[in-house]
Design goal:
Radius of gyration: 26 Å
Strand content: under 5%
Structural class: mainly alpha
Number of helices: 5
Helix content: over 70%
Shape: rod-shaped
């Protein structure tokens, strides 16, 4: 298994994912509409539970501060749900599933880093401009003092 960079999988995540996969497998064995509706509800709940069980930097998505979640992962929320659904529906092995999720988390991480770099660069440029302005003002003051 590939070394994960961002996702810290829990034992419960694996169990929930396996249960979700089995719901997709079992679905074919039910004919009654009520049974099919119950399975759909179960699949939706388990998908949400898988999502909530993701742990990044020792924080669960479920308990993560909403501001932090919105800043880092909200943009990718639909993608997470699509990956969970498609992986479980098609029986993707758990080890591969967590690698795929880790790759999406990497995208979110690199996006955040890019914005942090932008903020740092803007701060640096502003500091340089302020220093240039201060230097120019000091030069003007020195010239005025020399003329006086």
């Amino acid at each position: 298994m590939e070394e994960l960079k961002y996702l810290n999988p829990t034992e419960l995540l694996e169990k929930i994912y396996d249960t979700l996969c089995s719901e997709y497998e079992d679905e074919a064995h039910y004919d009654k509409d009520q049974d099919k509706q119950d399975i759909e509800v179960t699949k939706k709940r388990l998908t949400k539970k898988v999502f909530n069980e993701f742990v990044v930097e020792d924080e669960y998505f479920l308990t993560m501060d909403s501001k932090t979640f919105k800043e880092r992962y909200h943009l990718f929320e639909k993608d997470f749900f699509k990956l969970i659904t498609e992986c479980s529906k098609n029986g993707v092995p758990y080890e591969k599933f967590i690698e795929i999720i880790d790759n999406l988390l990497a995208c979110a991480h690199y996006r955040l880093n890019a914005f942090e770099q932008l903020t740092e660069e803007i701060t640096r440029i502003q500091a340089e401009k302020e220093q240039e302005q201060t230097d120019t003002e000091e030069e003007i003051e020195e010239e005025i003092e020399e003329e006086a």
